[in-house]
Amino acid sequence: TTQHKQRPFLPDLRDEAYNDLSEHEKLRDTYQWVPSEFIIDKDGKVDIRTPIIHLPVLPEYRQIYGDIARIFHSMLPMFEKLKLINLKSNVSQKLQVIIKAQSYNLKAGMKYSGRWHTEGQTENIVAVGVYYLDIDEQLEGGHTVKDRTNSVVPQVP
Over 80: is that where the pLDDT of 15 sits? Predict the structure, then answer.
């Protein structure tokens, strides 16, 4: 469509713009992550300003929204080390955040090898924060994270 022919992309994608035949454009139309707006106020408090996709804004989910905000707040020092935010700022900072929840139940002897998914490839994602709710003490491995090119991604302590 003409809408696709006119839509510019950020310079990190090849040739700075795509036509409607672009591989990235096809991926964007098929697989797209929808961000929620998170605000970090001048006191460092995290407020989720827009709904999280597939998590209704209903009274019974209010605690989950609060838990997500608290978990995200615990990641702020890491994002500051990456120079993505400034916790000493006197103004609120707005971030677009993707929330993805997964559950893996591994039994003794089972192996899991993660893989990169198709969604998010054209979203200009600048950082990832991972939170594990529960990790069994007997679980081995899991200390190496790799990017799409199979090179090791540095971990911020």
Answer: no
List, edge to edge, every strand of the sheet that includes 46-48: 46-48, 36-40, 93-97
Angstrom distance (rounded) from CA 48 to CA 40: 9
Tens digits of per-residue pLDDT, 73-91? Answer: 999 999 999 999 999 999 9
- Rounded CA-CA distance 27/122 in Å is 8
Quickly list DSSP for 1-56. -HHHHH-B--TTSTTSB--TT-HHHHHHHHS----EEEEE-TTS-EEE-SPBTTB-
Q: Which two tokens stand for residue 76?
A: 């702020």
Question: How far are the Cα atoms of 70, 75, 100, 101, 114 from residue 133, in angstroms, in the given order?
Answer: 13, 14, 13, 10, 17
User: Beta strand 46-48 with 36-40: parallel, antiparallel or unpaired?
Assistant: antiparallel
